[in-house]
Specification:
There is one protein chain. With 405 residues, the protein is α/β, with parallel strands linked by helices. The protein has two domains: 9-205 and 340-404, Rossmann fold; 234-321, 2-Layer Sandwich (formyl-coa transferase, domain 3), CATH 3.30.1540. It has 18 helices and 13 strands. The chain has helices spanning 18-28, 57-62, 76-86, 100-103, 108-114, 139-146, 166-189, 199-204, 210-217, 253-259, 274-279, 281-293, 297-306, 317-321, 324-328, 370-378, 382-390, 399-404, and strands at residues 9-12, 32-37, 51-52, 55-56, 67-70, 91-94, 119-124, 194-198, 234-238, 244-248, 311-313, 332-337, 341-346. The strands form four sheets. The protein has a six-stranded parallel sheet with strand order 5-2-1-6-7-8. It has a three-stranded antiparallel sheet with strand order 9-10-11, covered by helices on one side. Strands 3-4 form a two-stranded antiparallel ribbon. Helix 1 (18-28) packs across helix 7. It is elongated, with a radius of gyration of 26 Å. The two termini are 34 Å apart.
């Protein structure tokens, strides 16, 4: 069955997480994604540990469903080749520091003139314009700059980074949404456009009500550890088995009180209303902590689940990879890699009923698809391809085969 984006041609010039993850999502939806990377070594992430058989797991997770075409973009000939590919592309994704594409003669005006239907997704730390545009930025810098870090961690401890590169993932998702929106607009107008997304902007979009609270009410949202901001008992608590469980019972406290055998709490003015429980949050949380701490994990979860209260053990990765719900939903897949074997990784997140997403290809070997892409996209002959290889404009895993042919 064809994917939703079957026939869409994508040039992925990006590195690290945000750009590659965006391009990977398009590939999961059936687009033909060409990963443009440095000849000889490929994208820097290919060298990252941990690795199996010389292949970085980091790179595998973000670069499935792609084809590899190494181009030396520091050479004018490489830049000219990129412009030729742009003429045949629907989407170009890049996350260089602003100004880099312009220095290569691949600015938006030039590319748009070559291909008016092109959609150019530009992912950066601070955006393509503004006083901070040219500053270097990574995920954790966006977390620090946006206020996210100030909201994360124990109230008596230092600001903390979130446990994953959340800004990269969210920015990749926004870039994907922007590309799909631009494709729909192109369907009406016939014209492509720039999709400009930034890590800082994406991080700020995650701030709940912090901005209006501060600007309108003078309140400063700060760190609360694992406690919910509104409505105890909503936090993580330690069981007698030394497991952490997280419960969300703020708006369902009457049900919680019944489940733990304490209906009397509802008659106590300190706990009888939502507002009263907020005022007495420490006491409410102690009640929950004492009850949970005296019982094993299975009993706690069984009791709360029987009362239809949202709760879960705080899972380790060992728990995640054996989670029956995730297995049922296909959220952990095994991708066959010719040199490594089966590589487990996250599955496709979006489910479409008629055009399902799927994983068809593992991380490509560097230059694995050079011949195929240049012959199918640009009708280049073996002789032309070999000339580009000999002049070190491109690289190919099958360079010797091409030469012999």
């Amino acid at each position: 069955m064809s994917g939703a984006l079957e026939g869409l041609r994508v040039l992925d010039l990006s590195r690290f997480i945000s750009g590659p993850y965006c391009a990977m999502m398009l590939g999961d939806m059936g687009a033909e994604v060409i990963k443009i990377e440095k000849p000889g070594s490929g994208e820097l992430v290919r060298s990252y540990e941990p690795a199996l058989g010389g292949n970085s797991l980091y790179s595998m997770v973000y670069n499935r469903n792609k084809k590899s075409l190494p181009i030396e973009l520091r050479k004018p000939e490489g830049q000219a080749l990129l412009r030729e590919l742009v003429k045949e592309a629907d989407v170009l994704i890049e996350n260089f520091r602003p100004g880099t594409m312009e220095k290569m003669g691949c600015d938006w005006e030039t590319l748009h003139s070559l291909n008016p239907r092109l959609i150019m997704a530009r992912i950066s730390g601070f955006g393509q314009d503004g006083p901070f545009a040219e500053r270097p930025c990574f995920d954790v810098i966006a977390q620090a700059s946006s206020g996210l870090m100030d909201l994360t961690g124990d109230p008596d401890g230092p600001p903390s980074v979130i446990g994953t590169y959340i800004c990269d993932y969210v920015t990749a998702s926004y870039a994907t949404v922007g590309i799909l929106g631009a494709l729909q607009a192109r369907h009406r107008t016939g014209k492509g456009q720039v999709v400009d997304v930034a890590l800082l902007d994406s991080a700020v979009s995650l701030l709940l009500t912090a901005i209006p609270e501060r600007m309108l009410m003078g309140n400063r949202m700060t760190r609360r550890g694992n406690r919910d901001r509104y409505g105890p008992p909503t936090a993580s608590y330690l069981t007698a088995d030394n497991d952490w469980v997280y419960i969300t019972a703020g708006t369902m406290f009457p049900r919680f009180a019944q489940a733990i055998g304490r209906p009397d709490l509802l008659e106590d003015p300190r706990y009888g209303s939502f507002a009263a429980r907020i005022d007495n949050a420490a006491e409410v949380e102690k009640i929950a902590a004492d009850w949970i701490g005296a019982r094993g994990t299975e009993e706690v979860l069984a009791t709360l689940q029987a009362a239809d209260l949202p709760c879960a053990k705080v899972a380790t990765i060992d728990d995640v990879v054996t989670n029956p719900q995730l297995k049922h939903r296909g959220q952990i897949v095994e991708v066959d890699h010719p040199r490594v074997g089966k590589v487990p990784m996250q599955g496709v997140t979006i489910r479409l009923s008629d055009t399902p997403l799927k994983v068809d290809r593992p991380l490509p070997e560097l230059g694995q698809d050079t011949h195929e892409v240049l012959s199918s996209w640009l009708n280049y002959t073996d002789t032309t391809i070999q000339s580009l290889i000999d002049s070190e404009v491109i690289d190919a895993a099958d360079r010797d085969t091409v030469k012999e042919g």
